[in-house]
What we know:
Layout: E1 5-7, E2 15-19, E3 21-23, E4 29-43, E5 48-62, E6 70-74, E7 83-86, E8 96-117, H1 123-126, E9 136-139, E10 145-149, E11 158-166, E12 171-179, H2 180-183, E13 184-185, E14 195-197, E15 201-205, E16 210-217, H3 218-221, E17 238-243, E18 265-268, E19 270-271, E20 276-284, E21 287-294, H4 310-314, E22 322-329, E23 334-336
Parallel strand pairs: 3-15, 4-12, 10-14, 16-23
Antiparallel strand pairs: 1-6, 2-8, 4-8, 5-6, 5-7, 5-8, 5-9, 8-11, 9-10, 12-15, 13-14, 16-20, 17-18, 17-21, 19-20, 21-22
Amino acid sequence: MMNPKMLAGLAFAGIAMLQLAACGGGGGSEGGTGHLSASITDAAVDDLKAVNLRVIALELRLQGAGEDDWVVVDVRDEFGAALEFNLLDYQHGATFPLFEDERVPAGVYEHARLVLEAPARTPGECIGQDPLAGSHVVVDQTGALVPLFVPSGANTGVKLASPFRVPVDGFAAVVIDFDLRQALHQPAAFRNSCYFLRPAFRVEAVQNTGRIAGTVALPLLDGSSGLCSDHDPMTGNAVYVYQGWNRVPGDINADETVPTAAPFATSAVTFDATGEGSYTVAFLPPGDYTVAFTCRADEERLPDPDAADEDERLAVDELDFQQPQNAVVEAQVTTVVNFPAD
């Protein structure tokens, strides 16, 4: 593992940078150094067998630092190979370590971006690209490999809503929480040729988070309710979590034009031999939440800004949410929210 370096504008060949949103606490640069560990986790999507990411680096910027003053934690091996893993293997609170105990400048970090190996610089270059040349997905039913494209708008990084702190001579651990249901998109013009990966992630200080977990009864999963997209308990089932109590559940594209809330996080429901489903939404900051279940999550769409049809541009979907419930999350505590049969 290389030591972090202050660089002014990386010029890696064939990479893409994804902006992140994070949370933590207080002050700017504090002088000295501290230790930082970072891991990655995921909320799954339907229809994909694998989402194979190749990560080159995590870039961080301190409060008050210049636009080009990034602290770079390079995760490539000694031969320059990117760190590769299947993101779908790390769900329901399981994490993949990006790096451990790297020494970085102490202080409060307010910008972050993840550097991926994704060679296509334009959507057109993604068509016909060798998927194995960079990050890619594996389609569940066909086994087809499809390359990932990261739009250029994700390259600049973003100011963090709640920055995280690395103390002087201390330790901090953060988790990058992907929500692939909100991040992955395949525009109509790129069917079977390319997936777009947009920045729909959170970064949380691990010690300051809790989780919501529970079970879902079989009649809610298998279409018995008449509200599901199909009768297969293995598909389309998810739990959506919203910040605040008594929120009206909405799809991921809900905004001020519709009277529903957009989710803060989602989790796929896993169905197994016990005859019921289970889920975990991990790494949630403490606070009040509304939790709801849907068996139509496979009908969730992402907006296509280039589509001619307004419905495809907005992609606001009616997902028939069931049993919305209020919950309170505390740090290092699991809050149980079950969805029983009616």
